[in-house]
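Problem statement: downstream parser choked on a complex file, so we are re-checking the raw output for the glycine run. The parser issue turned out to be on our end (a line-ending mismatch), but while we're here, posting the original submission so the record is complete.
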Amino acid sequence: MNILVIGSGGREHTIVWKLNKSNKVDQIYCAPGNAGTGFHGENIEISDTDADGLLQFAKSKDIDLTIVGPEAPLMEGVVDQFEEAGLAIFGPTKAGAQLEGSKVFAKNFMAENNIPTADFAVCDNQEQVKKGVEDKKFPYVLKVDGLAAGKGVFIIKNSADLEHAIKTIYKKNKFGEAANQVLIEDFQTGEELSVFAVTDGRDYVVLHPAQDHKQVYDGDKGPNTGGMGAYAPAPLGTPGIIKKTEEQVIKPTLKGMRDRGTPYKGVLYCGLMIDENGNPSVLEFNARFGDPEAQVIVPTIESGFVDLLESVAQGKLKKNNFKLIDKYATCVVMASGGYPVDYEKEKIITGLDKLENSESLIFLAGVRKENAKFLTNGGRVLSVVCFGDDLKESISKTYQNIEKINFDKAHYRTDIGAKGLK
Ligand code: GLY
């Protein structure tokens, strides 16, 4: 099989690494890819949102399966274009990806389909927001409708927070069209959990539940990032909670999307809040594997990864060969100092060779290769992943190994997975 992976992050390196292990796979291309995807496949200089360019490339190379990593190409309609051309592609159509691309769509959809989520109101302008929060008790949440790289969510604990949010959204116009509508949502308490279903629109399999760490500093302090580390399976995701998530979230979502005439296929990433009674409530949906969650949930698939993705793209999920590994995995992200605000690039990364052939996996993200050197080229630079028979072992192995890697001003959290040990 010839496979094209779209994207350039740590998630895509993980997917390419996993595909490369399958003897069904002959050639892997990644567009545009990064230094890591280049280890196992060929990087192609086509932007991940250039639907025409990607389609032309896929036709010219007899690509049997295309896998979309990030959200932007999904919203751009890359899947729709490939399907119209009769090419197999893994990921939801533009209509399906609205579950991630429009928070207002997702909330209205959840309300219509009785999927548990926080109460909300939709506002079309600043005046409506001000009016909508007049009688609201702190804390509550403001969210911009469209994609905002994790920066469009504001927890409002006091009037200074409200002023800051209004200024950022309306005065500085930081989100452009993504903030044409803004949600006011009740604040939910509990513990966050990410549950991933791989689905053909009707049938599905659930991967190991994971927990992300969004804030940049230990103890969930500092600004939100794309994610600073993850672990799986998260003990919070007990069989009981997964069952409730299937019944209350996954099944009604798939049915609701079928009923709309836009069946959803690909990864349904359910970002959940689990309350003290073990009940899930949806914080958000994403239409893809998480990053860095992919770095733990893909390696913990023991077998059947290629069959699973290929069968979804063909419209009929095949899960006979699908099996999860009975081990824990922890991923710690090493980022450029100053990320997610200001950071420098072009720092030489040392120590990558020390992890070769060892028990660690290294997935590269913001890294470029120049001759024999690896240089930083982004905010989230790389991640280290180790397995363990229990969570504690996987955490300690990951930290022992990440210490071997270095670059100037490197930063990583030291408490990834700690919540899972409590
Ligand atoms: N790690 C969060 C995300 O992928 O959206």
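For whoever reads this later: The domain at 2-93 is CATH 3.40.50.20 (Rossmann fold).
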